[in-house]
Write a structure and sequence with these properties.
The structure holds two protein chains of two kinds.
Chain A (H helix, E strand, L loop, with lengths): L1 E5 L2 E3 L6 E2 L6 E2 L5 E3 L1 H15 L5 E8 L3 H11 L3 E6 L6 H15 L3 E5 L10 H9 L3 E11 L2 E8 L2 E8 L2 E5 L11 H7 L4 E4 L1 H4 L8 E6 L8 E2 L3 H10 L4
Parallel strand pairs in A: 1-6, 1-8, 6-7, 7-13, 8-12, 9-12
Antiparallel strand pairs in A: 2-5, 3-4, 9-10, 10-11
Helix pairs in contact in A: 2-5, 3-4
Chain B lengths: L1 E5 L9 H11 L3 E8 L3 H8 L4 E8 L8 H11 L5 E5 L2 H14 L3 E10 L2 E6 L4 E6 L5 E5 L14 E4 L9 E7 L13 E5 L6 H15 L2 E4 L1 H5 L20 E5 L5 H4 L7 E6 L12 E4 L2 H13 L1
Parallel strand pairs in B: 1-2, 1-4, 2-3, 3-9, 4-8, 5-8, 11-12, 11-13, 13-14, 14-15
Antiparallel strand pairs in B: 5-6, 6-7
Helix pairs in contact in B: 3-4, 5-8
The chains are: A alpha/beta, B alpha/beta.
Chain lengths: ~250, ~300
């Protein structure tokens, strides 16, 4: 059984981004970039399924500029077998990403497609669901637990108020929530090995997918910042202030 | 222009999130509310009384009973011809379902929007709430999900007509196995007027329960938690407030032993009044708190609980 794992290169989660002063974009020049944390969890899950003998091969795929190669090398160091880089310099919307991933999936024919539940830059939480729709495959979104049994994936999903479990016919699309697992740290020998693993290049044009944007970002702005208030010296003073503000 | 809102329910009652989605959708046109499930008369009757709903569409079939996206998406697509906007609340249900609909319709989606500027223009947050982006889309069809805390809940007093629509065939791609919903003795987190949240500073689940729960009860508050507290298993998953958990905007938010990482602040920065209790005077949470107390939470919290009870 083959797994396809999609990984995105994003601004590191510790970086607090700023909006450019002309409101034209978010300023991400010269900031630290890394693999989207949810995608790390997706890669880790694929590697664990392989270690458990459920999966034979893991193909990692990333879409975007030249430097996505680094993100793919990280996935290879974590345990993916080979990588596909869909190289493009243009901005991609989730629906375009889903179409590109479908084109890769049509070639690779994976049984399990693993993604993060959302990217921490656009916070869209769309791609996995869209990919499942395009493949007419079932979806196990916000997965907290994944079991492969025969020709089904049993996915326990995190929902409002608790969790639910669904059985999905394979091939299935699964999106990882934070609590699915704890991704491993890669060690130097693995990073060295990853450099020798195959990394194939393609483009949206070769895959026959249009990247035209249908949502136009007209302006970026800083949200209204909360101001730091005051520090109070005692609980009595706090209760008094809260009562005065009619907060309690 | 008509707007289709997909209602969320558990077979007994309409989910409060849907009430917020109705208010948002009403800004865009005439609202039709789709109630799909198995045995939905009761839900449809509740839906028809909502203010701002012009029509309730019911789709009744066993394969709609568990709210599976694989079954509900084709139903929404079968109705899409009459609507420019297909919408739902941006909670776990809407986030799971709506992108599937968007892809089947080959139309873009605007997720978790916080403001409707005009018929084609919407504002949403990106980068964990650190930036606002205004998006414009003139396409013939659009899928939208609404951040519930950005729109009021629709009131009652409406009297919409109810019409049944034909069910779409079962897809049988997925099977529902079961659901675990821990009993809540307190208000639901995203709906609560007051939220008391605990973080890693509490040190253990025993301390979390012993300190946070009595304070929440004294205030009639819902209980939240930071990711660190959830990961350390001081509190269940669905208590998590933040970018990857729930977004809350209560009247009063009390953060106890929470440092205030950007991912946490993303989930509570629209709260009206924020109180922080933390022993570290440099903790980032004090930058967003209206009132802060620097000190030992093990002394302060019981004292505060006692003072509020008095």
């Amino acid at each position: 059984m083959k797994a396809l794992v999609a990984v995105k290169r994003v601004v590191d989660y510790n970086v607090k981004v700023r909006v450019k002063s002309d409101g034209s974009d978010v300023d991400i020049d010269n900031v630290k970039m890394s693999m989207n944390p949810f995608d790390e969890i997706a890669v880790e899950e694929a590697v664990r399924l392989k270690e458990a003998g459920k999966i034979g091969e893991i193909v990692a795929v990333s879409l975007g500029g030249k430097k996505c190669e680094e993100t793919l090398r990280t996935a290879l160091a974590m345990g993916a077998d080979r990588a596909v880089h869909v190289e493009t310099e243009v901005a991609l919307e989730p629906l375009v990403v889903a179409k590109l991933l479908k084109a890769v999936a049509d070639k690779e024919q994976p049984q399990i497609l693993l993604l993060g539940k959302q990217a921490i830059d656009d916070d869209a939480n769309q791609t996995a669901q869209m990919l499942a729709a395009l493949l007419n495959a079932p979806q196990g979104t916000f997965a907290g637990k994944v079991l492969i049994e025969g020709n089904e994936a049993l996915v326990t999903r995190e929902i409002d108020g608790g969790s639910e479990t669904v059985a999905l016919k394979l091939p299935a699309v699964i999106s990882a929530d934070l609590r699915l697992n704890e991704p491993r740290y890669v060690k130097l020998p693995q990073i060295m090995q990853a450099k020798k693993k195959p990394l194939e290049k393609t483009t949206p044009e070769e895959l026959g997918v249009s990247t035209a944007l249908r949502l136009q970002a007209v302006r970026y702005a800083e949200p209204k910042a909360r101001q730091a208030g005051e520090k109070v010296g005692s609980v009595a003073e706090l209760v008094e202030k809260l009562k005065a503000a009619k907060a309690v | 222009m008509n707007v289709l809102v997909i209602a969320e329910h558990d077979g007994q009652t309409l989910n409060p999130a849907t009430l917020h989605a109705v208010t948002a959708a009403a800004k865009l046109g005439e609202v039709h509310l789709l109630v799909a499930g198995s045995g939905v008369e009761n839900i449809a009757a509740q839906a028809a009384r909502l203010e701002g709903v012009a029509k309730v569409l019911t789709a009744d079939a066993p394969h709609y009973a568990d709210g599976l996206a694989e079954e509900l998406a084709p139903l929404a697509v079968s109705l899409a011809a009459e609507y420019r906007y297909l919408t739902a609340a941006a909670d776990a249900f809407g986030k799971n379902l709506m992108p599937r609909i968007a892809a089947l319709l080959d139309c873009p989606q605007v997720s978790d929007l916080v403001e409707i500027v005009d018929a084609d223009t919407f504002v949403r947050l990106i980068y964990a709430g650190n930036a606002l982006v205004t998006l414009k889309c003139t396409e013939a069809k659009l899928v939208l999900t609404f951040r519930t805390t950005a729109f009021e809940a629709a009131g009652s007093g409406g009297n919409a007509q109810i019409a049944a629509v034909p069910a779409t065939p079962a897809q049988n791609l997925s099977r529902f196995i079961g659901r675990e919903l821990p009993q809540l003795e307190r208000p639901e987190l995203t709906q609560a007027k007051v939220v008391v949240s605990g973080g890693k500073g509490l040190g253990s689940k025993e301390n979390f329960d012993a300190l946070i729960l009595p304070l929440a009860d004294a205030l009639g508050a819902a209980v939240g938690a930071s990711r660190a507290a959830v990961d350390a298993e001081y509190a269940p998953n669905d208590y998590q407030v933040g970018q990857t958990g729930k977004v809350v905007a209560p009247e009063l938010y009390i953060a106890v032993g929470i440092s205030g990482a950007i991912q946490h602040v993303a989930g509570m920065q629209d709260s009206k009044t924020v109180v922080a209790i933390n022993k570290d005077p440099e903790a980032a949470i004090f930058n967003v708190a209206d009132y802060g107390i620097v000190g030992d939470l093990f002394e302060i919290v019981p004292e505060l609980t006692a003072a509020l009870k008095a």
